[in-house]
Amino acid sequence: MSVQTVNFIVTESAAKEIKRIADENQIENPILRVRVVPGGCSGFQYAMGFDDEIAENDRVVEAENGVKIAIDEFSAPYINGAVLDYVMDFMGGGFTIKNPNAVSSCGCGSSFSCG
């Protein structure tokens, strides 16, 4: 499973929330690292957090507001074509990833499997 580039979409609401969190934490040039890691009840789960640098083999997506998304070489094929969104509902707000590569997910929605 090799991907030279990655098609990863960051919605306007997700970019705004990432920037808001970065500003709140005084992070001047935010790089959000999005990863796929083994675990969860379906095999894989997503991990996100701010990073200080972009690695040589990272795929980089530039979102609005100067936000950069770094995706490592392992994760890229698993989330190619996915959409990162930030949604508000009656339970509050949170990030979601709509992933066309996920063939199933767990009931809690925090892990997935690929076919």
From TrEMBL:
GO molecular function per UniProt: 2 iron, 2 sulfur cluster binding; 4 iron, 4 sulfur cluster binding; iron ion binding
Pfam families hit by this protein: Fe-S_biosyn
The Core domain, residue ranges: 10-109
Top-level taxon in the UniProt lineage: Bacteria
SUPFAM superfamilies: HesB-like domain (SSF89360)
GO terms for biological process, alphabetical: iron-sulfur cluster assembly
Annotated protein name in UniProt: Core domain-containing protein
Lineage of source species: Bacteria, Pseudomonadati, Aquificota, Aquificia, Aquificales
